[in-house]
Amino acid sequence: MSTPVGETVALSLDEVRSMTIAALNASGADRANAEAVADVVTRAERDGCASHGVFRVPGYCKALIAGDSKGDAKPTVERRAPGVVFVDGDRGLAPLPMALGRPMLVQAARENGIASMAIRNSAHFAALWPDVEPLAQQGLLAMSYVNSRAFVAPAGGTKAVYGTNPMSFACPRRDGKAPMVWDQASSAAARGEIMIAARDGHSVPEGFGLGPDGQPTTDPNQVLEGVLLAFGGYKGAGIAMMVEILAAGLSGGELSYEADEQYTGHGGPTHNGHLVIAMDPSAFGADTFIDRIESLFERILDDEGARLPGDRRLANRARIPKEGAVLPAKLVAEVRALAGTA
Amino acid sequence: MSTPVGETVALSLDEVRSMTIAALNASGADRANAEAVADVVTRAERDGCASHGVFRVPGYCKALIAGDSKGDAKPTVERRAPGVVFVDGDRGLAPLPMALGRPMLVQAARENGIASMAIRNSAHFAALWPDVEPLAQQGLLAMSYVNSRAFVAPAGGTKAVYGTNPMSFACPRRDGKAPMVWDQASSAAARGEIMIAARDGHSVPEGFGLGPDGQPTTDPNQVLEGVLLAFGGYKGAGIAMMVEILAAGLSGGELSYEADEQYTGHGGPTHNGHLVIAMDPSAFGADTFIDRIESLFERILDDEGARLPGDRRLANRARIPKEGAVLPAKLVAEVRALAGTA
Predict the structure, then answer these.
(1) So what's the pLDDT on residue B176?
(2) In B, which residues are within 8 Å of A235 by CB distance?
(3) By the CB < 8 Å criterion, does A116 face chain B?
(4) Tens digits of per-residue pLDDT, B209-267?
(5) How far is A73 from A89, CA to CA, in rounded Å?
(6) B305 touching A, CB under 8 A?
């Protein structure tokens, strides 16, 4: 029985979590790996981030079922230098190595003022803000960088070299306010946006991509056969290159074009590298840090029309735990089928 | 006697350096401060970066003559944490504190794998690549962040809050090759570009700025009365905010709108904050780091039309030391007049 397109169901966050764990377990994930993934999926749904919530569960399951990501991965965490936490993800999904390494990263940042965590052999398929928000909740400034498969052309080029290469930035706030966190791809648009435009017969803005002939195009089908462009021209391409080098270079994880060459077409995430940097403002001696950041944010919000990044997420966070996550019925049916409970 | 517009003179790099030192000395800089500024000015001319070479000397002199920047500033360098070098610029120009702090930053990065240098009470008026290139020449990955006066609107806003907020990224290369370094403002265009368009009666592209009414405009005069926009829309505005928080927040230096409020109109740089982060790839255990980065760069250059950032600078660097720096005669006359040797 097919579910009509557009039909939705509301699930409680507990239901989101247990459904996700069941689908991952049935696809081969052990308890630790399934719970870590379900945690980031549930936090995404809590914040209304549909693109990184339950929507990603079939992809995680496909990577497990294909045997490309290990469901029983046992990440190892070591302190390679006072400021370097190194995590080998054991060819599993990223949420578990990210969660296992974080306490040592916090400790290293407090001891040294700045520290980093490099992760390799790990498949990242989530938003990046859940990786850094817990650090800012503990008073740290944090940035993270993740590469992916090759989708984005270098400055002036026409062939895919960089991943969509997102980065994130998190800044603590006063009085237990939720941290300010942004999280953005280095590509002008997500590949998913282009796919939706193609499905719906819409054109895409100039600057989103090039066709297979290397020429600018607004035809999403041409972009899908061609290459994505970085946001903001050569400056965004500079950011994409930086993310590639920080995420894959320092960790020794796959560069985006290497991940592409290894990709078996399962539809889930590939193994790459990730880097998180955490800084403790108190170690810099700026004891007015939080007051000055709040003044900056006030100044921004004085400007009618200006918003802080993430404010829509935080508004959702106040509402969705009570109202539940509204999900496409077809997606819920797919995840339940993966769990064997459809 | 006025010099015709467009007339140029070629100076040797030694002449650039000595002329710059003379102008700074005559404006109140002591030997250490004048030599540090002349070093970054001369390196800019060596690399053909006209916008950050001798062109900046009158601005440095104006800040000194106005008494806003101290010519005899004595920066202090301290290690506030294993990974934190903290430099107080003593209300002088940035090149001296940057140069004095760098050896301790290198040492801290080697000991910890990652380290940072925060600088406050320091007026940055140079390109950012000279700050990070020496780190990459010693095998370190490096990033730097500098804020300025308020010129750029936040995402969705119409009033200036952020500086043009440049950042830079430097990556070491194999076999003594010059590091790959990029250096880019967070604004879509430099304010100087808008001023040149206004002078020449040209329009500027959509997305460069808003008029004083808060509406998008292609009239450079309207942009100069209004506000600049970040590159690449809200994503560039996210970068601008990050630079503001990293540069001014961690150091305790002036936020861009604070610098604006203190600015006395002298035409030179204001005091702000700067942050440099340095990472030692060998501390991460990726002993193939350089080989993999070279593979990435080869892949980029395989793509006809693609270039590595900074390659024009490096081509100039091979040529200009022999041929000399070609400078507007009017600018040379202005700097010589400042030196009292016109």
Answers:
(1) 86
(2) 184, 231-232, 236
(3) yes
(4) 999 999 999 999 999 999 999 999 999 999 999 999 999 999 999 999 999 999 999 98
(5) 7
(6) yes
Find the DSSP H helices in A3-77: 13-26, 31-46, 57-65
pLDDT along chain A (342 residues), means of 10: 70 98 98 98 96 95 96 98 98 98 98 98 96 98 97 96 97 95 95 89 95 96 96 97 98 96 92 97 90 97 93 97 97 97 72
- Kindly report, residue by residue over B294-322, the tens digit of the pLDDT: 999 999 999 989 999 999 999 999 999 99
Q: How close does chain B come to A153, measured CA to CA in Å?
A: 8
Quick check: B84 and A242 CB within 8 A? no
Percent of chain B with pLDDT over 90: 93
Catalytic residue, chosen from A193, A225, A258, A294, is A193
Helices then strands, counting H and E runs in chain A, come out as 13, 11
ipTM of the shown complex: 0.96
Provide the pLDDT for residue B192.
83
Closest by CA to A49, choosing from A322, A317, A269, is A317
Q: Measure the CA–CA gap between A123 and A220, rounded to whole angstroms.
A: 27
Angle ∠(A311,A317,A320) on CA atoms, nearest 5: 130
Q: Compute the distance between CA of residue A85 and CA of residue A96 in angstroms, rounded to an integer.
A: 15
The distance of B159 to chain A (nearest Cα, Å) reads 6
Distance between terminal CA atoms of chain B? Answer: 11
Complete domains list, chain B, with CATH: 8-187+230-298+310-339 (3.30.1370.60)
Q: pLDDT at position B107, please?
A: 98
C-beta atoms of A161 and B305 within 8 A: no
Q: Which residue of A has its CA nearest to B118?
A: A284
Whether the Cβ atoms of residue A73 and residue A94 lie closer than 8 Å to each other: no
The answer to whether residue B94 scores a pLDDT higher than 50 is: yes
B332 interfaces chain A, CB cutoff of 8 Å:
no
Q: Distance from B86 to chain A by nearest Cα, in Å?
A: 7
CA–CA gap between residue A271 and residue B292 (Å, rounded): 16
Chain segment B259-281, per-residue pLDDT in tens:
999 999 998 999 999 999 999 99
Q: How, if at all, do strands A325-328 and B167-171 pair?
A: unpaired
Q: According to the 3-state scheme, what is the secondary structure of chain B?
A: CCCCCCCEEEECHHHHHHHHHHHHHHCCCCHHHHHHHHHHHHHHHHCCCHHHCHHHHHHHHHHHHCCCCCCCCCCEEEEEECCEEEEEEEEEECHHHHHHHHHHHHHHHHHHCEEEEEEEEEECCCCCHHHHHHHHHCCCEEEEEECCCCCECCCCCCCCCECCCCEEEEECCCCCCCCEEEEECCECCCHHHHHHHHHHCCCCCCCCEECCCCCECCCHHHHHHCEECECCCHHHHHHHHHHHHHHHHHHCCCCHHHHHHHCCCCCCCCEEEEEEEEECHHHHCCCCHHHHHHHHHHHHHCCCCCCCCCHHHHHHHHHHHHHCEEEEHHHHHHHHHHHCCC
Size of interface A-B (CB pairs under 8 A): 255
Amino acid, res. B268 = G
